[in-house]
Structure formats: C-alpha cells, structure tokens
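To whoever is covering the structure queue this week,

Two jobs came back overnight. Logging them here so there's a record in the thread.

Job A:
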Amino acid sequence: MASSAVMRFTVVDYVIFALLLIFSSVIGLFYALSGGRQRTTQEFLLAGRSMTFLPVALSLLATFQSAVAILGVPAEIYTFGTEYWFLGCSYFLGLLIPAHIFVPMFYRLKITSTYEYLELRFNKATRLCGTLTFIFQMVIYMGVVLYAPALALNAVTGFDLWGAVLTMGLVCTLYTALGGLKAVIWTDVFQTLVMFSGQLAVIIIGTKEAGGISEVWRIAKNNGKISGIDLNPDPFERHTFWTLSFGGVFMMLALYGVNQAQVQRYLSSRTEQQAILSCYVVFPCQQLVLAMGCILGLVMYARYGENGPLQQGYVNASDQMVLYFVMDILQHYPGLPGLFIACLFSGALSTISSAFNSLAAVTMTDLVKPQCPHMTEARATLISKCLALGYGLLCLGMAYVASLMGSVLQAALSIFGMVGGPLLGIFCLGMFFPMANSMGAISGLVAGLIMAFWIGIGSFISNRASFSFVNATTIKNISTALTTNTMTPVNLTTVAPNSRPSERRRCEPVNGCSGSALSALFPARAMQGEAELWSPLSSCTQ
C-alpha cells in the first residue's frame, strides 16, 4: 500500500481516541483514591462483593467482545455469508446453564479463584495444574489481543503501531493496578457504550450510503450471502447449524461457566441473585452485539460486492477490511473514524484488563498465599497490585513476541480455544461425576490438552503446507506468464484527485505487474478469505 494512499486521522479523531484513554485512566484513579481505596484483597480482586447485576452484565459482555471479534465477525459475514449468525442460538443454553449450575456453586463457596474448587473437589496438585493451564492460556492470548488491532490500524491509517500498543498497554495496566476489579468493571461499562456507539455509527452511515437496509438485504440475498439453516451433519463443514448451535454451547460454557475472568465478576456481585441476573441480562446484549457485527458485514458487501478491499489489494488481510471500510465511508465525517477506533480499542482494553485482574487473582490465591499462609492483608493486597502491574508489562512483551510470529498469530488465537475445552472438562468431571478422583482429573486434563493441541496445531501446519504448495505453483505460473508475455496488460488509468479513496487507491505497477494480472493467475478461492496467497506475491500492495 503506497504511503500516499494511506487514509489519515483528523485532529478530532485523535481527540476522541485520547478521551477514551483519559476517561479509562480517570476511572481507575477514582477507585484508587476513594471508597476502600483497594486496601484489601477482597476490595482489589472482588470489588468488595458489592456490585449490582447491570455493571456486572456489561462487564461480562465487554470481556467477551474483544477487538478481534469486532474486526473478525463482519469480515466473516462479508466473505462467507450469514451462516455464522446462527451462533446466537447457542447463547441461550450457554448462559442459562452457568446461571443455574456454575454461578450458584462458585458463589456459595465464597472463593476468589475458580481453581480453589479443584482443590476442594480433588487435591492441591489438580488445582495447581488448572491454575498453570489458565495462566498459559491468558498470557498467550492477551499479547495477541493487544497487538492485532494496533497492527490493523497501522496498516489502514498509518497510525503508529508501537505507539498504539504502548499507549493501550500502559493505560490498561495503570487503571487495573490502581483501581482493582471495581475500576475494571466500570471502565468495561464505559467501553461497552463506546463499542455500541462506534459500531452503530458505521452501520447507520454505511446503510444510508448503500440505499437503505432493504437494499443491503436485497444485494446480499441476490448474491447468496443470506444463509438458510444448514443441517448437514458433516463435522468437517466450515459452519453448520449443528457446529454453531451445539458447539457454541460448549464455547459459551468455557467462557461464562468456568473462565476465571468471568467467574470473578459473578463473585463480585452483592448477592447470588444479582450474579444470576447478570447472566440473564447479558443474553440480549450478546444477541445485539452479534447482530450488529453481522449487519456491518452485509453493509460492507453491499458497498464492495465481490471486488472488496482485500481482492483489490488495498489491504493484506481480512481483519483489515473493516477498518478500511470505516475510513472509506466516514472520511467526510470528522470524529466518527476516531469513534470507531475508540470502539475497537475499547474491545481490546476491556479484554486485556480482565486478563490482568484475573491473572493477578489466580496467582495470588493459588500460588502465593498457599506458600505464605501468615501473610498480612495489607501485604497481600500490595503483592496483588504488583502482580497486576507485572502482567501488564508482560502483556507488552507478548505483544512484541506476537509481532515476530507472522502467520502464527492465528495459532496463538487458537490456543485460547484449545485450552478452554479441557479446562471446562475438568470442572464438569468434578461436578457431575462423584466417582472421579484426582488421578483421573489430572490424566483427563493432560489427555484433553494433548488431543486439542494435536488437532489444532496439526490443522494449522497442514493449512500452511497447503498454502506453501499453492504459492509455489502460483510463482511458477507467474514466471511462465512473464517469460511468454501472456500477462494481462497493466491498467494505467489516471484517477481524478478528488475521487473516492476506493477509486484512488489503485495498485501501482511494479515490474510490469498489476492487480488485474495477479487476479488472473490466482485461484478463485483465493478471494474467499485465503489472504495468505496474496501477501507473499502481491508486489502491488505495499
């Protein structure tokens, strides 16, 4: 992508983005200097068990709604149609079961870490295995969550990559370490409102420019993007009703049933009824968030059709398409691009702050306190704050590691799912099978992790091998085309300076190569989300 073609922020956009960070920091400082001032571990890690259902519900939603989802869901719908929307069918059972089985059990035990249950049910070794598995899961994940949106923003707008990473990481660390869980929950509430506002603004203006919601739906329907219920039982299908609705239930149970970041919010509730009610309130919010992401994907399709930013070489990966679309349609509305970027980074901040706080909680409760049983409350609170600070700095380090991983980023994201299933399994084993013992629990956890990693990493390596083969074949085809002079002629059409960005940002010809030439040589399926086929070969995109 030529530097002259990169879309830039206005001063108003920077101001709105800065206000997000300032307000988040102010909330953390407020709770650090008021009330109990985070002087006990109960106050710092569990908000003094004083929260009501509404802020807890919005915090649950914000933790689930990461920047990866904000960028990924619309790109999924744009590329593959609305089949993914059926994931919403899983939300009902995925929240009803935790509300009446997991939440009451954890709340009545009066614990801080979910892994304390594993020691009560099995033994200390089982608890330690669960804790270390969770720490591994979250440390890997939070670096990716911090780095991915900053990378997408840098690619589309030229926004300084490491400036965004450092600013987000440090602000998030500041309010988490100072204000504790209460600050995290209330910043989540604020950031949830920003997320809704940003997505809604893009949907309204994008729909208006497309000719209305009926026109958006008509275009999508006429081009086969509106999916019916696919009852194909084949588990190897990308998405079907069964994999989304039933598979989604287990995903929701892993997230809302036993994940420390979510359970910690239940435990911060004033009463057990408030904790259960928060599960019920988050259900319609989840449906709304999913619907907004899907509608945004359809609006993108109504604007670009099959010849989208990825296919034209304006972006290098599908997760950059949403940002390109936002900058394209909102360029004449100063402040609105900044609002959407604030929405995107709100998703990242809420997820990362939850990770910091939950990691501090399990480390303190499961690893530090058992070794120092006579530690004073003041010292335990200070160590908890230092742990939150330490994990914040570790997150910045993991973001740097993520920058070196390249296409392995997808594998790092998959690790979150690979670990979540076995962790859910060990809790279900303890709750529903009275005859299970500690040896069986640890063996099951290890076997589940081995199986999950074997399938997940094996699939990733297999896909990379397939891409490498296709890339090698394509390079050979390009070489043949160059030597036999059969390549499509380069389009040197001049575009007016005041034309739309989507018209201006053409591929610059390099060594006789053009976007049209490459598109004639790539397989048709390269357009269906396989961005890896483009990146190594398209000298016209950067």
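Job B:
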Amino acid sequence: MKGYGSGGVSAAAQHVAKRRWKGQVAAVFALFVFSLLVPLAFLLGLHNSFPSGYMADDRSQQESSFETYRNVDRGRERFPSEGDQQKLPNHKDKFAPVLPKGVDSVPPEELNKRINKTVSPLSTLESKNDRSQATAKDNKSKTKGLVDSSGPLRKPPSSSTKTGVEDRKQNPDRGFSAYETDISCEHEFGSYCLWSRKHREVMKDSIVKRLKDQLFVARAYYPSIAKIQGKETLARELKMNIQDHERMLSEAVSDPDLPPLVGKKIKNMDNVIAKSKSCRVDCNNVDRKLRQILDLTEDEAHFHMKQSAFLYQLGVQTMSKTFHCLLMRLTVEFFKSPSVNMQHSSAYKIDNSNYVHYVIFSRNVLALSVTINSTTINSEEPNSMVFHVLTDKQNFYSMKHWFARHSYREVTIHILNFDELKSNHFSNMGLGELSMPEEFRISSHTTTQPSPLQMNTKYLSVFGHSHFLLPDVFKNLKKVILLDDDVVVQKDISFLWNLNMGGKVIAATEFCEVKLGQLRSYLGATGYDNNSCAWMSGINKIDLEKWRELDITGVYQSLVRKLKQKNDAQWRAAALPVNLLAFHGHIYTLDNTLIQQGLGHDYGVSEETVQNVAALHYNGNMKPWLDLAIPKYKKYWKSYLTRDERYMEECNVNP
C-alpha cells in the first residue's frame, strides 16, 4: 500500500512517538524539581506546620459539632478542631491562637504540672487564671487598678482568652500557683467567687475525667501513628476509640450519664494507647499536640468561668419577672382605684422639726417596706417618725399605692418623685437619673509582699450623687437620719436624732480596713490625711445646717468638674472620690457596734453578732430579697417582710 515500504514508518506514527518522548521528558523534569523541593522543605522545618489529624468528613455529625469558643463579646470564634485542621492552609501562623510561641522553652516538669492542674477538679479550675481582667474593669471606672464599682451591670470582660494566650507567650514560666487562690479569684470576679464556693456541688465525674484524660493522650498520639508505615490497623483502631470517647463525652457530664459499656471502652482505649506508646514516634509531635490541647482546655475553662460570673452579675443586677409584675400591678391599681391620700392628713409633720425625720433613697418597694417596718417596730415612739422616700417616676406610683394599702404603726410616709424635683428645681445641675448608694469593691496589695496571694479585697458603700441634694430638697429641716433600703433595724436608733456631733456634718461608721492613703492614685496626692479611714453609708445622721454653712454641695460640684466624667460608668465611679474628699474632716465617728456591715457578701459573720447588733446592712451583691442571698442572714430580713399581700401572691413574689 502507499506509504508503507520496507523499513518505513508513517508520518502519523512518527508524530505519536515524538509526543510520547516529550511527555516522558516533562515527567522526568517534574520529578527532578520535586526531589529538590521536598528536602528543602524539610530543611526549613515546614513539615512541623503541616496539620495533622483525620478528615472532618470521617467524623460523625455529633462529633464534628464540638467547638470551643474564645470570646463572649465578639460572638462565636472557634478554635480549629482536629477535623477542621485539614481545611486550613499549611501556614504556621494559623496555629498562633492555640500554640503560643516559645512553648518549647517550658520544661517538661512544668508541662506535667499544667496538665495535672487542667484535669484537676473544678474547684481548682475556678480559682485559676488571673488574667489581669481587673485592669480593664478599673479603667472603665477610672480606678487605676484598685477600685471597682460594683453598681453598673457589666458584660463579661471584653478581652478574650487570646489575651491570656499572649500573656503565656510573653512569660511561659509564669507562676500558676500564685493565681490558684481564692483571693485572686475574688480579685478578678468579685463576690461571684464567694458565692460559687459556698454553693459548689460535688459532682460524681471521676469516670468522665478518666475518659477525658484518655482522649487527650489518644489525640496526641494519633497524628504520629497515622504517619507510620505498616501501622494502618493501629491508626484505625485508635481513631475509632477516639470517636467512641467523643461520642460518650458529648452526652455525659457526670458518671451516671455514661453508657453501661463504658468500662469496656476504657479498657480498649488503655490497650490501644499502650500499643501506641510502644511504637517509635516523634516525641516533638506528641509534645506539640499535648500543649495545643492544654491551651484549648485552659481557655475553655476560663471562658466558662467568665460566662458564669456574667450570669451571676446578671442575676444580682437585674429585676426579676416577679418583681416587675408586682411593680406593674401596683402602678395599674393606683390609677384604677382612688388611693387614700396619706400625706393630706399628716402634711403638717413633713416640715416640722419636732418630729424625727428619716430619708431613704429607693427603687425597691419590698426592700423599702422592710426597712421602714423594722425601724418602726423597734422604735419606742413611732408616732414621732416621718419617713421621706425619694424614688424615680417609674416606681413613684407603685410605692404610693403600696403604702396606701399598708400602715406601719401610723408613721408618716412621704413619697417624693425625684425626677419631678430635678426638672422643677435642679435642672441646672446636669443631674442624671436617681442615684442610689454606690457600692465598690476595693482590692489592694499589702506593703510587704505585693503578690496576688497578698491581695486584700474589701467592700465599701457610699452616697450616690443624688444624696448631695438633700439640703436643697429639705430646705425647712435642720437634720435628718439617712437609711439605705438594704438595712434592717433591730433596735431603737432614735437616739441618733439628739446626738451631739461636735460641729461635724455627717455621722457614720468608719471603715479603717481601707485608708485614704491606699487610694492615692485614685484620689490624688493632696487634700487629705493618708491615715484617715474611709466611712460607710447605711445609717447616717446629717446636720443639714452645717452642710449649708460649709457649702458641701458646692465642694461636690467642684470635685465633679475636676473629674470630667465622659460616660455613665465614670459618673457612677466618681461617687467614691467625691464622697471621701467632700466629707473629709467632717465625719463624726459612730460606734462600729451600731451596725453590722457586709451581710451581702461576707459569709463569716457569726450568728451571735448578727442577733445582738442594732442594725444589719446587707451591702454587697447578695441582697436578701434575691435567690442568691446568703441563707443564714436572709431570715432576719424576711421576718419584717409584709405578709398576706394579694399582689405578691398573684405575681409569685416569695423572696
């Protein structure tokens, strides 16, 4: 045929042979380039950044739902799980959130200590990881690291646990034991730590902890075992046991939640871990994985600690649904039915200096009723008592209706709307809403050993900004006795009315556990005696004439202008320096046995002291009308609570 001769090759065949030759050359060239790049990659150490683990597609739906969140404020920010790691680019910086720089510098014994502490009981975890969150809180209150206003409701600390990771980057050998004390926990989370320690429930979770320990070790060995040639069966067995453990832990919090075959699964995991340890693996990879798991666990524990503290603060700072119901019912009933005008029959007493005048700032009708009831019951002359109550417009009508329905030994109760007074008489002072007595948590170091182990945390209550209007609100009165609405009076305190204060403006109990010199960075360097004690609100007598003579309100306004508050939090925090400086040198010291302070945060007050003291002050977050109150003190408050109130029963109010 044409084109085929002896020993001849067609043109098509020559073209195919030429293409095959070019393909072989390209393949050889690619192999040559790859043979150069692979050793170069290992020389540069890039193999250490390759993600390890099994594919997310291999995991069950239930297992792949495990996530660890780092930050409350920024929403859900996930840590990369083992399944997710396969989806990440092969760059070392992707491991920065979970693997701090310089972790290799941590000695093995320190790593073992940290692992033991991580898997220790919850009591250890709760008192751990002081991340210096108090600094952020104090900046909000302009306290420069010492004073924290516990009044405003705050979100969880804005700095995420990534901040804690950065701290470990800078100082991996930081002494963790110094932060495992109750004092450091209280310094960071306040009275939540006091409450959580007293209400901690012992969980039966020893088997659950054993499963978690096994899971940590298995996860650390799996990436290395999966890379060993000839160990495919062991890697598959290890992976199946990891999935079984994760499945059990996803459904169990305590030992009773575990399935019946948990003992067999623990034994299987022990066997497969023993096999894994017998293999020759790269210890750096195992160490690396353990450190990653450790950091994740520490961050997760600290996140849950912050979340619990925030929920606690939410519970103590907000009004419950039942209390809100009572407030609404009383307000509605005030407008539905004509209330008895209490003030009409006894209006002549309101400005009469021959009567004993008490002033209370309050937004809580139940707390107010207990304070008035306890004071009148234990008074020898209740007919001579006049109570002036300053409240806001939201609670004004509910309080008027409450005291129209209930009488307390025929005392005179005068309800004032602070918002109306402000708009009519004090609009030029730039005041905000009604200010209640402010409570502060003060943490300071001892002078000998300034460490977290030597932190002193004290609680202090002072006047709110609205208290500085008392001489203007009660222009016709010469003196008043001021009560907080979280005070229970157990004995007659009318002797304070005739007390000679020696020319002082205010009578108060001193709180010498906090000296003004300790607050130098907050109060300034001049204008006061460093050895002077702080003072407490609760029960105070005020000489209004002396107040007007010394123009304490003018001093207050001058101090407020100097502090230059930019927001509501700074405005409230300014109450502490304003009170301590404005009344400095004008305090008449009352006997400390008159009133027992701290029943809203201190569990250590003896029952004998509580029974014998003249008055009880529940300053602190754990107010007696809350479910979070300290039980052994709550009964003294409830004994003066109004009973058989229809609206309380309908709203299910049972404090």
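Note for Job B: Residues 46 and 415 are 75 Å apart (CA to CA).

Please reply-all if you pick these up so we don't duplicate work.
Q.
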